[in-house]
Design a protein that fits this description.
By secondary structure, the protein is an alpha+beta fold. Helix content is about 40%, strand content about 20%. It contains nine helices and eleven strands. The N terminus is likely disordered. It comes from Massilia aquatica.
């Protein structure tokens, strides 16, 4: 996890007895952003103890937190992710305690120091190549577009899609309109790799000019490479087309597949 925007002096989350003693003496701050529905807390200020992050949630959110924990334990063999310090699960609740990662987010780096923009993009592309080079045969998690389309349909039917958060190009659209637009891009022939699932500037940590890890890996799994490329490309959009183009070139794509790019941008709107 990373330093982010916090609400200082918050009340600590309810803790299982097995976790409470170890966290005594920490100062708690609740993050102003994070996985939808999850309580995300930064724990710091305990003498001679490292900073930690805690995610806590109930019901479906507990399932998402459990998914993230299992993926972190697998990914750590290949790329740097937060260490799972402790995990507790009951039938309807989950607590995930993680180490804090060094550095700042790629977004913070680009916003605070616009001049090193190309170097940041080069570091992001290098890390993405490293992630996508993990053997697909070794990955136990399937996150391909058929799985995500099924989940997207469930979210639409449940009224869980935040249409007010759509990109500017789809402002005023309904979730059904996004769904219909997705169908026009099918069938899709995937180029399967191990993906992060939400490879955005907010989820990539940079220190001394290099990406030192990624966070929020609950959607990780085998999927088309454009699952990650589309989200990173979209995140870079606010910093200019030159950086978007550089990202593709540094990744190794001189001519991006626009159909796949648009499909995954549409799909991401539903999550």
């Amino acid at each position: 996890m990373r330093p982010s925007e916090h609400r200082p002096g918050c009340v600590a989350a309810p803790l299982p007895a097995s976790m409470a003693a170890a966290l005594a003496g920490y100062t708690w701050e609740r993050e102003a952003s994070g996985e939808s529905g999850a309580g995300v807390y930064r724990l710091h200020g305990k003498k001679d103890c490292p900073d930690l992050f805690l995610k806590h949630g109930n019901d479906a959110v507990a399932d998402q937190i459990t998914d993230e924990m299992t993926r972190m334990l697998w990914l750590v063999r290949y790329i740097p992710v937060p260490e799972v310090v402790q995990f507790v699960r009951t039938p309807d609740r989950a607590w995930l305690l993680m180490s804090a990662m060094n550095g700042v987010t790629a977004r913070h780096m680009l916003e605070s120091q616009p001049e090193p923009g190309p170097a940041v993009v080069d570091a992001l592309a290098a890390f993405l190549r490293r992630l996508h080079a993990i053997p697909v045969s070794a990955c136990p998690f399937n996150a391909d577009h058929t799985v995500r389309l099924r989940l997207a349909r469930q979210r639409i039917d449940a009224g869980a899609v935040d249409v007010d958060d759509f990109d500017d190009e789809r402002e005023g659209w309904t979730a059904e309109q996004v769904w219909e637009a997705l169908q026009r891009h099918l069938p899709l022939v995937p180029d399967p790799v191990v993906t992060h699932g939400d490879f955005s500037l907010d989820n990539l940590m940079i220190h001394d000019g290099a990406v030192v890890g990624c966070i929020d890996v609950g959607r990780a799994g085998v999927a088309d490479c454009y699952q990650d490329l589309a989200i990173l490309w979209n995140s870079l959009g606010e910093f200019g087309e030159a950086l978007q183009e550089r990202m593709f070139l540094q990744y190794g794509l001189a001519v991006p597949d626009q159909r796949k790019l648009q499909f995954h941008l549409l799909l991401d709107e539903l999550f």
